[in-house]
Specification:
Blueprint (H helix, E strand, L loop, with lengths): L1 E6 L9 H8 L2 H4 L2 E6 L10 H6 L5 E4 L1 H9 L6 E6 L6 E6 L14 E4 L5 H11 L7 E4 L5 H6 L5 E5 H10 L4 E4 L13 E5 H6 L1 H20 L1 H11 L8 H12 L14 H13 L23
Parallel strand pairs: 1-2, 1-3, 6-7, 6-8
Antiparallel strand pairs: 3-10, 4-10, 5-8, 5-9
Helix pairs in contact: 1-9, 1-10, 7-11, 10-11
Length: 308
């Protein structure tokens, strides 16, 4: 049996529904693949998924497009490649508690922003504030990543970046009202996120195995998307994950994700060059990247592992 390790971007949640479904329905095992999902809980997110991938510790990592761009343009170049996009459009947002009175990004000036310390993160939030008429003078505070959402709920930070189909649905079900600021509404063509990444060297040496893994994963995502209610009940009965025991919450989260998971042709995972191009052009315009990266866009992603 061949082994595949994949580093998750967060503790298991509905973003990972296809991976979890394929694992617990034994779809991987039936294809002679032994798949291990590595949660960032194991070291309290000391090492990011992309860092684990770059170090050769895992076969795949879940990460945003910024990770691909950052590693491919860093001094210590690492050819991380996006091989599937879990979502076709961005479902993340900068949020504040409605009770804070911060109703627009411009009002974040002078406020505390709980940051994940990603390479482009603070610059993206700063651009959002400026595009809304502010100065971009918020105060980024870096804390343990797994505690950021709790920091906002406790009022220890004024804003942070969340996935609306998970934390957003959690907040709604708990009666926590949020003000939501999405990138596209403030002139930022944010790229694909999250993605499944591989390392170019391993991709070439294990391509048949990697293609098998991605094809099974794609089929499982399609199954989860097609029947959120059945999937939620299956997770509740077959996993030991506490968050997945609340079937109503999981079903609501899966339904929230549903419209963002397939392209207009009903395909999961496919990526388009113009989406990468728009985000990279924006990063270049913000002087966050050099213009030479435009010539390397085709090296950042591939659809060759996905079902035809």
């Amino acid at each position: 049996m061949e082994t595949i390790k994949i580093a998750l971007d967060w503790t298991p949640n509905t973003i990972h529904s296809g991976l979890l479904l394929a694992l617990h329905e034994d779809r991987y095992r039936e294809a002679n693949l032994g798949v291990e999902l590595i949660s960032p809980e194991i070291d309290n997110y000391t090492r990011t998924p992309a860092r684990r991938l770059a170090a050769g510790e895992v076969d795949f990592a879940i990460a945003p497009s910024e990770s691909v761009i950052a590693y491919q343009t860093s001094r210590n170049h690492q050819p991380l490649v996006a091989v599937a996009s879990i979502l076709q459009r961005d479902t993340s947002a900068i949020v504040t508690l409605a009770s804070s009175g911060i109703e627009r990004p411009a009002q974040l000036d002078g406020k505390v922003y709980a940051s994940y310390d990603a390479r482009f993160e603070d610059a993206i939030v700063r651009a959002m504030v400026r595009n809304d008429g502010g100065e971009g003078t918020f105060k980024p505070v870096i804390i343990e990543r797994l505690g950021i959402w709790d920091m906002l709920k406790k009022g220890e930070a004024d804003a942070t970046w969340v996935f609306m189909p998970w934390e957003g649905v959690q907040a709604e079900r708990r009666g926590i009202k949020l003000n939501v600021f999405q990138m596209e509404d403030f002139g930022i063509p944010y790229g694909y996120t999250p993605l499944i990444l591989a390392h170019e060297k391993s991709l070439q040496s294990r391509k048949p195995t990697y293609r098998k893994f991605i094809n099974i994963t794609a089929e499982a995502y399609q199954a989860a998307i097609g029947n959120p209610g059945e999937t939620a009940h299956f997770f509740a009965s077959s996993t030991q994950l506490n968050d997945f025991k609340d079937t109503a919450f999981i079903e609501a989260s899966l339904n929230s994700l549903k419209s963002a998971q397939l392209n207009e042709r009903g395909q999961w995972g496919q990526m388009e060059k113009d989406v990468w191009q728009a985000f990279i052009d924006w990063l270049i315009a913000q002087e966050l990247l050099g213009s030479s990266v435009r010539d390397r866009i085709d090296q950042l992603f591939t659809n060759t592992l996905l079902p035809a």
